[in-house]
Design brief:
This protein is an alpha+beta fold. The protein contains five helices and six strands, in the order E-H-H-E-H-E-E-E-H-E-H. The relative contact order is 0.23.
Length: 153
């Protein structure tokens, strides 16, 4: 049985349609230790909701699949990258990334206001005020509840 996750991305930076077109991408540039640890825990075949942030309303727009487990994030070593970290080295990379592939897009965005109204999601980090974690776990019950709404659309 796969584990479930949620990946946040600004659609102007990297949206679900770009993933659909490219079919696969590395999920790089994550600079939060808990989000990094979540990626380290991922296994090939795990599924993730693709969440568009910094839009009104923000929300879940589709599903991606983990196709490569965690490995050093090369953007941390590149001084020209927005995600450069001078503390990271090739010997001690600090930051990790995974590769994800497009699974499917939903017919509509399931917005954060709607997600917050779902009783089944009460303990989900996403619906907590102030939750900014860009990569977060989703329980099987939360996954099923969101998928039920997506499939009813």
């Amino acid at each position: 049985m796969p584990n479930y996750w949620l990946f946040k991305s600004e659609p102007d930076t990297y949206g679900i349609e770009r993933l659909r077109k490219e079919k696969r991408t590395e999920w790089s540039g994550v600079r939060n230790y808990q989000a990094r640890n979540n990626m380290i825990a991922m296994q090939v075949g795990d599924l993730g909701f693709f969440y568009h942030s910094v839009v009104q309303p923000p929300g879940i727009v589709g599903i991606c699949t983990i196709v490569k487990t965690a490995y050093p994030d090369f953007t941390a070593l590149d001084p020209k990258s927005d995600y450069y970290d001078p503390k990271a080295t090739a010997e001690k990379p600090i930051w990790q990334m995974v590769d994800v592939a497009f699974e499917r897009a939903f017919t509509r965005l399931i917005g954060l206001p709607e997600l917050r109204e779902m009783k089944a999601l009460a303990g989900m980090p996403l619906v907590q005020k102030g939750s900014r974690l860009s990569v977060q776990p989703v329980t099987p019950a939360q996954w099923k509840a969101i998928l039920k709404v997506a499939e009813a659309s």
